[in-house]
């Protein structure tokens, strides 16, 4: 039936995460050359001979023709390392985690000017120093800032601002060229044709390598792609939010455009460790989202139970089920789960080796679709900036 057993050996998620936490300690106390093997032995309880740390060797290609961009089949979303999440690791811990991801085969790292704002790019710049020859970092433009403060009711994708953000991002990231430059949100005051022309010029100048768009509809994609070939669309996509399946994903297939799902585990919810009693810190944006209010969480936990039930007999955690499902939706899809923990990085990467049959995919989708999702994913202002 294609139920490939993963390296967690069928242990439950809590035990898996506990063992991986111990692995983190092992990495700190053994000599550098032995730290990987020692960590793996702690996670799995296996002997040194059988040890094999989770890694990703598979690659996928976003875009086509001159816009093609080959990366690891799973990327790393960097936002939560120091922005929008309750507990941030200190800088050195965050950098070590990024280095772990690189050592395990991840080559795609995603950030944005607005994360912080500005601070996430600088952190990733420090983390990727000396690694830029083997990894790719993508970032975003388009939000409006005045004296360093975001004007949340407006966007700014004017050519002047795109160029300004590009120069700032190049400095913050410490790179000579941005691997992919996304428009973060559409700007009603600047045509998408003007945006595409500006990025095309930056590509000609060598400051940008690839062009991407976030949270846009099929019409915007067609118009932009006619001016400057798009490498990837980045939008929210997971088992609790499948709107892109209506028209965006079919168009990506048609035009040879890649797709990068952000929040592929629904901001941690599909991992199964959030419930109605979870307390979010003031700096955690989930506390403001309708879908993360106690009543909505309580109702939506039925979906997590579906993933628990589906994964229990297969030896997979809910987060792994969610990620593997996404990766089965198309070979042009590269999810970018974020994490601040080695245990979750370990867990996420193992999802890339899970195989589902068509019947299993149908079983999972049917069970999840039978449960209505409670609560919007964004508040009214943020929702107004997303094209449908």
Keywords:
single chain, 2 domains, disordered N terminus, 11 strands, alpha/beta, seven-stranded parallel beta sheet, TIM Barrel, 388 residues
* Sheet with most strands: 7 strands, parallel
> For this structure, what is the CATH homologous superfamily of the largest domain?
NADP-dependent oxidoreductase domain
Structure annotation, total helices: 13
Query: CA-to-CA gap between the ends?
Result: 37 Å
Give the secondary structure arrangement, pairings included.
Layout: H1 13-29, H2 35-44, E1 59-62, E2 69-72, E3 76-77, H3 91-103, E4 108-110, H4 119-128, E5 136-141, E6 143-146, E7 149-155, H5 159-173, E8 180-183, H6 192-204, E9 211-214, H7 218-227, E10 230-236, H8 248-255, E11 258-262, H9 294-312, H10 318-327, H11 342-350, H12 358-369, H13 380-384
Parallel strand pairs: 3-4, 4-5, 5-8, 8-9, 9-10, 10-11
Antiparallel strand pairs: 1-2, 6-7
Helix pairs in contact: 1-2, 1-11, 3-4, 4-5, 6-7, 9-10
Explained architecture:
There is one protein chain. The chain is of the alpha/beta class and 388 residues long. It folds into two domains: 1-53, no CATH class; 54-384, NADP-dependent oxidoreductase domain (TIM Barrel, Alpha-Beta Barrel). The protein is 39% helix and 13% strand. Strand 4 (108-110), helix 4 and strand 5 form a beta-alpha-beta unit. The longest helix has 19 residues, at 294-312.
């Amino acid at each position: 039936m294609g139920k490939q057993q993963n390296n967690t050996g069928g242990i439950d998620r809590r035990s898996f995460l506990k063992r991986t936490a111990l692995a983190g300690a092992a990495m700190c106390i053994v000599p550098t050359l032995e730290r990987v093997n020692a960590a793996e032995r702690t996670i799995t309880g296996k002997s040194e001979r059988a040890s094999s740390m989770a890694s990703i060797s598979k690659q996928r290609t976003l875009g086509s023709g001159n816009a093609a961009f080959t990366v690891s089949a799973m990327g790393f979303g960097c936002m939560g390392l120091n922005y929008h999440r309750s507990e941030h690791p200190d800088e050195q811990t965050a950098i070590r985690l990024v280095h772990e991801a690189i050592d395990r085969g991840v080559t795609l790292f995603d950030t944005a000017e607005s994360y912080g704002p500005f601070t996430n790019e600088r952190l990733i710049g420090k983390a990727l120093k000396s690694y830029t020859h083997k990894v790719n970092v993508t970032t975003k433009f388009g939000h409006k800032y005045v004296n360093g403060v975001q004007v949340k009711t407006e966007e700014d994708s004017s050519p002047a601002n795109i160029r300004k953000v590009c120069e700032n991002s190049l400095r913050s990231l410490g790179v000579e060229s941005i691997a992919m430059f996304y428009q973060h949100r559409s700007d009603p005051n600047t045509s998408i044709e003007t945006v595409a022309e500006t990025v095309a010029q930056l590509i000609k100048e060598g400051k940008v390598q690839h062009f991407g768009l976030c949270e846009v509809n099929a019409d915007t994609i067609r118009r932009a792609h006619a001016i400057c070939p798009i490498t990837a669309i980045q939008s929210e996509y997971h088992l609790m939010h499948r709107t892109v399946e209506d028209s965006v994903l079919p168009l990506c297939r048609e035009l040879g455009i890649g797709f990068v799902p952000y929040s592929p585990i629904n901001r941690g919810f599909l991992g199964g460790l959030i419930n109605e009693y979870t307390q979010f810190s003031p700096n955690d944006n989930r506390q403001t989202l309708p879908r993360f209010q106690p009543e909505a969480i309580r109702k939506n936990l039925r979906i997590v139970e579906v993933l628990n039930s589906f994964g229990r007999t297969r030896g997979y955690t809910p987060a792994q089920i969610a990620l593997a499902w996404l990766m089965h939706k198309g070979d042009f899809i590269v999810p970018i789960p974020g994490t601040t923990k080695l245990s979750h990085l370990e867990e996420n990467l193992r999802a890339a080796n899970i195989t589902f049959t068509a019947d299993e995919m149908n079983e999972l989708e049917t069970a999840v679709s039978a449960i209505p999702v409670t609560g919007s994913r964004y508040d009214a202002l943020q929702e107004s900036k997303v094209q449908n």
